[in-house]
Amino acid sequence: MSITSDTTAPLKGLDKFYIGGEWVTPSSSSTISVIEPATEQVYYQVPEAQNADVERAVTAARTAFDEGPWPKLTHAQRAEFLRAIGAAVRERADDVTQVWPRESGIVHGAAQAMIGGVPDAYDFYAGLAETFAFEEAATPTAGGRYGLISREPVGVVGAIIPWNAPMTLIAYKLAPALLAGCTVVLKASPEAPGAPYIMADIAEKIGLPAGVLNVLTADREVSESLVRDPRVDKIAFTGSTVAGRRIASILGERIGRYTLELGGKSAAVILDDMDLAEAAASLSGAECFLSGQVCSSLTRIVVPRRRHDELADALAGTFSQVKLGDPFAPGVQMGPLAMERQRDRVEGYIAQGVSEGAKLVTGGGRPKDLDRGWFIEPTVFANVDNSWKIAQEEIFGPVLSVIPADDEEDAIRIANDTIYGLNAAVFTHDADRARAVGDRLRAGTVGHNGFRTDFGIGFGGFKQSGIGREGGVDGLLPYLENKTMIFEEKPSRFPG
């Protein structure tokens, strides 16, 4: 079966960059082709930024921060822009959900469900204008009578986002940055620049001051110039741990600020009282989202040894029934992987798992009824040793490893035996046991009986899964610098 598409991308300015409040001509004729993963056809093209374009964008952001009106506005005034952005995102929801599946392979229905929460992020941070203590009185301890903590914008932010969920990840960088008073250079992924282009169009529509948001698309080498530029005060990055290490090392040279939301190899710990059919349905269903191309996916399934075979069979039963195909077709549960190199990567790990001695219980190949598109079958390995590559390295595809544990203590040890610590889950019908085991898991999020992450509360990882948090009140803090002020007399403008 072949999948065809002749849809035109609903995007503006595809031959330009959005810099300094204007759609500007790129410095070169170099372009990037965005390939639709279900058809392997070119969907649209955008210009590829060069160092000169990045320099121009940083200059615009720096000028807007140092000389423009944006940082001088009150938080309440900036909140009105955030609400306008949220309203505009709601208006463009259909466009987003047309583009997203054609860039990353997400099923259209899942995209529709996800986009609904994006405007809420802008509204949430707008609400913090009234409730967050941007200024706070403090008692001096070394002289002076009146102390003040003033939380001020960190400055120019370079926001670097990946291709898998761009609209959501933009929101949880852009919204807190704008509320704080920062200006932003948004660097789009070459595989999925659609959401950033929509955000540029929205910025122009709502009259965001020039230079507050600047948007361009660049590959890794040119993107590094954004990280290296000393005029950029902070980098907010979501992507691989390998790239995160590189960014942190560069910023360490100049003491640049950063938040890093990186990779994961998250464990689901199945306790001995859990209904295995229920667990299997939950785990395989969650792994269908974005074809497993999610950093917080629960891909290491740790189960009591005596129940291992039963769970492996249950996962094989549910996962093998997943319907693959056109992300826009009714009834399809999982689309393709986002790009050819991603499918090559997943196939390489599947081959590695077989060579290491894992038992392949379902999947492992390309679906025979789809002759085009970067599809891969949902795959389950059983009898996996936690030291093997398929259990230690992030695959970023629909591949589950079932790992036997001797007892609960051994299960906790296995779950924590990883360089990552992004997400985890405990499957049990006893909430107290879930809490007790969850307390001992070294992960930024622990869910009960399912894959659960919540940017509304806060999201981020332990260990090499990242530094800092995105979402919630904690997601605002990295965009602020604390200034301590001490006075002999009380100023007229003083909190309390």
From TrEMBL:
CDD domains: ALDH_AldA-Rv0768. InterPro entries: Ald_DH/histidinol_DH, Ald_DH_C, Ald_DH_CS_GLU, Ald_DH_N, Aldehyde_DH_dom. GO terms for molecular function: geranial dehydrogenase activity. Keywords: Oxidoreductase. Residues 23-484 form the Aldehyde dehydrogenase domain. It is an enzyme of class 1 (oxidoreductase). PANTHER family: ALDEHYDE DEHYDROGENASE (PTHR42804), ALDEHYDE DEHYDROGENASE-RELATED (PTHR42804:SF1). Belongs to the aldehyde dehydrogenase family. This is Geranial dehydrogenase.
